[in-house]
Amino acid sequence: MNPEPYLQLDRVIHEKGRLAIMSMLAASPELSFTELRDALGMTDGNLTTHIRSLQETGYVSVAKSYQNRRPLTTCSLTAPGRKAFREYVNLLEQIVQQNRPK
Predict the structure, then answer these.
(1) Is the dihedral of CA 76, 66, 42, 31 positive or negative?
(2) Is the distance from CB of 35 to CB of 75 less than 8 angstroms?
(3) What's the CATH class of domain 4-90?
(4) Cβ atoms of residues 39 and 21 within 8 Å
(5) How does DSSP classify residue 10?
(6) Averaged over 17-29, what is the pLDDT?
(7) What pLDDT digit, counting tens, does each position of 30-77 carry?
(8) What is the DSSP secondary-structure string of 12-78?
(9) Phi, psi of 76 (to 5 degrees)
(10) Residue 51 CB burial class (10 angstroms; 0-12, 13-18, ≥19)
């Protein structure tokens, strides 16, 4: 078994909560904070922490606006975020193929 692909996994994306956020955002142009929180069953604080980590690496952008006089926070993947997620998924597929019984 070649351990190299495992060492290349993006640690920012690999964490379970951030992987879930990235997966949801990859399937949608943007999602509100509330949609992410409710779909993933996270607390506000936990989701905020994960989004901040993804934002600091440049994978996620956050926009704040108002809808019906209420604050609305939306998140979306940046171009580098989409690229990083695609590379992460490709690497996982490579690991699966490498370890498939022959």
Answers:
(1) negative
(2) no
(3) mainly alpha
(4) no
(5) -
(6) 98
(7) 999 999 999 999 999 999 999 999 999 999 999 999 999 999 999 999
(8) HHHSHHHHHHHHHHHTSS-EEHHHHHHHHT--HHHHHHHHHHHHHTTSEEEEEEEETTEEEEEEEE-
(9) -150, 155
(10) buried
Burial class for 60, CB neighbours closer than 10 Å (0-12, 13-18, 19+): buried
Could you tell me the pTM of the whole model? 0.90
Rg for the chain, CA atoms, rounded: 16
Q: Which residues contact 57 (CB under 8 A, 6 or more apart)?
A: 12, 84
Q: Tell me, what amino acid is at 77?
A: L
Residue 1: per-residue pLDDT: 60
Give the domain ranges of the chain.
4-90
Q: What percent of the chain has pLDDT over 90?
A: 82
Percent of the chain surpassing pLDDT 70: 97
